[in-house]
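Quick one: structure tokens for this chain, please?
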Amino acid sequence: MSLPLLRLITCGSVDDGKSTLIGRLLHDSRAVFDDQARALEADSRKFGSQGDRLDFALLVDGLQAEREQGITIDVAYRFFSTPARRFIVADTPGHEQYTRNMATGASTADLAVILVDARKGVLTQTRRHTRIAALMGIRHVLLAVNKMDLVDYSREVFTAIVDAYTPFAAALGVTVIQPIPISALEGDHLVARSLHMPWYEGPTVISYLETVDVTAAPASGPMRMPVQWINRPGPDFRGVAGRLCAGVVRPGDRVRVLPSGVETSVQRLVTWGGERAQAETGDSITITLGDEVDVSRGDVLVASAAPPAVADQFEARLLWMGDHELIAGRSYLLKMHAKEVRASVTSIRHRIDIGSDAQLAAKTLALNEIGVVHLATAQPVVFEPYAVNRTLGAFILIDPLTFETVGAGMIEFALRRASNVHWQALEVSAPSRAALKQQEPRCLWFTGLSGSGKSSIANRLEQRLYAAGRHTYLLDGDNVRHGLNRDLGFTEADRAENVRRVAEVARLMVDAGLIVLVAFISPFRAERRAARDLFAAGTFVEVFVDTPIEECERRDPKGLYAKARSGRLPNFTGIDSPYEPPEAPEVRLVTTGRTPEECAEQVFARLL
């Protein structure tokens, strides 16, 4: 029988000694091979910060940049074992700039080792890391008060730090806190007890890690298995493969495929070692089903008698990890286990102040900020609250343009009212409305700088279409702000909401059979992509009115550039707010030396 496994993360502020702690644990628990020991001696002479002594941090800080700067940048994973337990340790960055890396390590950990420099006490970064650890579902914390040798092993210093930290962590939901005074450099209370602190009677670091019970609740809950792939090695075998994230499953059990809700039974459990009579939480298995049912990657097999919920709107806690701030209404890719869907943050309820735990009003979230948000997905997803099931409650947000991970979230609950809103079946269909008007509905989305000629060209085009007997409507940016969007300003968040609302209106108009002309600056690719995603293929035509900013500023029909240059008009596109040109528009209009009528005729020809 294999030894139990504990996944832990070390975190704290910069230079609190995280890497030294892990390196010393590896060394003192005899988990360092001879060649690693020789390499440590050589690296200590070349890169070390401890003079002639071994620099144990170098066992973990593997990146060249880390060794040169003396800080941890990447998440370094190390494996070691004792006669009592196996360990996977994630050494994560302490610098605020790399908080996203710390969140990555915390997402799979059962326990957090929070280091505090005895000379500095509890810092803002200590609170930030504790909050993120709690946010990721970690309920066990080893509070390692390090560098006790530099405060003369003072009991009073240790007690003051424990008294300052414990109420804060407990309020976040950390249920087990074990404080230990240590010196990672000297080895005090890591593997052996320290003679320097006879007043401390608790466990050493290694003895605590060997005995702490971090058994997760989902192991005893109903069966849950996200489907990772369909296993078809030959024509006579079809299995559903995945990793059991909760419960137990046996042949003969009734299961349900979500979100479709189809029921069937388990026929066989197959692994690389052969068939099994039972699979438990954490097992990777292939299940063959008793019926030919539709199952695909991203679906979830669940116990038929106790299925989880399915919803498309949620309240969640979100750690923002993007360099560019979160904008409500902007479209992202949401990935939850093997499921990937379009999603957007519909509103930011509040931002959480790391130091005081206060709930602050916010329209955006910046790098490393944590907030409570409302989230909407394009399709219903199977979920359980993160506190119940990490796998079915955790998600990441991905920028659809760069494919960078920009957010990590934890679902708290579904917005139940969303589950009660359904599409109403209508007797008159969109094709019927289009047929009555004898035209192909379209959304013509004109984008370009202020003064580029968008409205003038769209106006001429609508006249041309009207003369040809077409049914149209022109949505102009300025006109819409007098009514529908009069409550919006010109911040990036308000601009995103401005475009979102107009895109939804345009979609309804296209559904009514109209040719809709939208003339909006719409400076950001993400918002234009989100608008495109609302329409069926072929019905969205992006028209880039390509006019150099020098020409736009020369025209300046409304005097806006002059105001922006003088500082009286902040957040003006092209001056102090960026414009992201389309990368592949259906129509590109070069307006220099051409009349609005000529440009309108070019678009009209594209519609024929």
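The longest strand covers residues 339-352.
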